[in-house]
Design brief:
By secondary structure, this protein is mainly alpha-helical. It has 19 helices and 4 strands. Helix 17 runs antiparallel to helix 18. The N and C termini lie far apart (about 50 Å).
Length: about 425
């Protein structure tokens, strides 16, 4: 059995546990299961069939995560990404006035370009162009971002018009349930209970029933057909300037969201060697590229590696078996969607917040004693949370790093590729 697990998923019996891999996969699924409800709601605003988008979301997640599990043999899950789906619906369709078919075509072209960039090794080269100091800041940046997502999803942050986000009333049922989940999960983690995150999610969801926050609307349901949105590409206007802008923006967002997620979670998992290399990185990028291409054909926005994979890694997941378990959970969700969608965001918030705490441990690796290192690193860490974007954190951090080195005339810290990337980032902020 272990021989097959090793061959298919890169499982190492000496350093890994099947039980931890499975628990890690389930934990990852539960922390990102919100996408099953959120993605259809967002794309429905673009005029797409909500039920069909639900099925497309699940199927694209299963395909991409299986490629990650079997081909890349890494513990990461993929699904249509947040932010990318908002750009799809609210910018390309609503703001620019194009049809959702046009937007799907932009995603499809982006996916094909990703495959080309991956095959040629360009995406791996981009990772190597990031300075070491910046790569060290990605993991804590993602930790802060995850904690923000957890608090926001749980309704513990409120934003009034013209004001900054503030803490909501802790006496509300939602806040009380979130605090309960955090306390329970902390106790389980301190006692080293296996599957602490998963147990915390389940217990919190059950406590949410009498509070009226967990609503079970059944267990089994027939998945809606994808026919209204599947293979609905529109080739009119593919050579227009607007299509170029759409594809270029999607490329920027997805490339650096994926790079940030992979680098950050791999750092947390101890999967990065002394030279900063990530195992099978090219294959991980290929899973992302295939997911995006297939997702566009099925009828959904850009598929990307989910930063919530950190929760599964923290639960002990280290091989493709973790991703395989997550893919199976997504497949089961096609039939058991009412059960999975009943889990309230307050139940998964504790996992996201505490994983964020653990990922902040890597902040000690950042050299804050020198301003030329501290400023780019701080930009990377803070802007991930402040802008709700991993890609913006990386881009702004690199821009600060290069401009500071130029001002200090520290040419030895720079290379041509790094300067070209910085120039592209600046142009992106000016024109896109």
């Amino acid at each position: 059995m272990q021989k097959y697990l090793s061959r298919w998923f890169g499982f190492d019996a000496q350093t890994m546990s099947v039980k931890k891999e499975i628990i890690g996969g389930i934990t990852t699924f539960l922390t990102m299961a919100y996408i099953l409800a959120v993605n259809p709601a967002i794309l429905a605003d673009a005029g797409m069939d909500k039920g069909a988008v639900f099925t497309a979301t699940v199927v694209s997640a299963v395909i991409a995560t299986l490629v990650m599990a079997i081909y890349a043999k890494l513990p990461f899950a993929l699904a249509p990404g947040m932010g990318l789906n908002a750009f799809f619906a609210y910018t390309i369709v609503i703001a620019m006035g194009y049809s959702w078919q046009f937007a799907l075509t932009a995603v499809f072209i982006e996916g094909l370009l990703f495959i080309l960039l991956t095959v040629t090794g360009i995406r791996e080269q981009i990772v190597r162009l990031l300075p070491a100091e910046l790569r060290k800041a990605i993991s804590p940046g993602i930790g802060l971002f995850l904690a923000f997502i957890g608090l926001n999803n749980a309704g513990m942050l409120v934003t009034n018009t013209g004001s900054l986000p503030m803490l909501s009333s802790l006496c509300s049922p939602a806040a009380a349930l979130t605090c309960f989940g955090i306390v329970v999960t902390i106790i389980l983690l301190i006692k080293n209970v296996m599957g602490a995150m998963l147990i915390g999610i389940v217990v919190t969801a059950l406590v949410g029933i009498p509070l009226g926050l967990t609503h079970f609307g059944g267990i089994v349901d027939t998945p809606p057909s994808m026919a209204p949105i599947c293979l609905q590409l529109q080739w009119d206007g593919i050579f227009s300037m607007d299509m170029l802008i759409c594809v270029a923006t999607l490329l920027f967002l997805d490339i650096f969201d994926t790079i940030g997620s992979l680098v950050g979670v791999c750092n947390r998992a101890g999967m990065v060697d002394e030279q900063g290399n990530i195992p099978r990185l090219g294959r991980a990028f290929m899973a992302d590229a295939i997911g995006t291409t297939m997702g566009a054909l099925l009828g959904t926005s850009t598929v990307t590696t989910f930063v919530e994979s950190a929760s599964g890694v923290n639960a002990g997941g280290r091989s493709g078996l973790t991703a395989f378990t997550t893919a199976i959970c997504f497949a089961v969700a096609l039939l058991l969607s009412p059960l999975f969608l009943a889990i309230p965001p307050q139940a998964t918030a504790s996992a996201l917040i505490l994983v964020g705490v653990m990922m902040m441990q890597d902040i000690r690796k950042v050299d804050f004693t020198k301003l030329e290192n501290a400023i780019p690193s701080f930009m990377c860490v803070s802007m991930m949370a402040f802008t709700s974007s991993i890609s913006d954190g990386i881009m702004l951090g690199l821009i600060a790093y290069v401009l500071i080195r130029i001002a200090m005339r520290k040419w030895q810290d720079l290379n041509v590729g790094m300067c070209i990337l910085t120039a592209l980032f600046i142009l992106r902020y000016i024109f896109l």
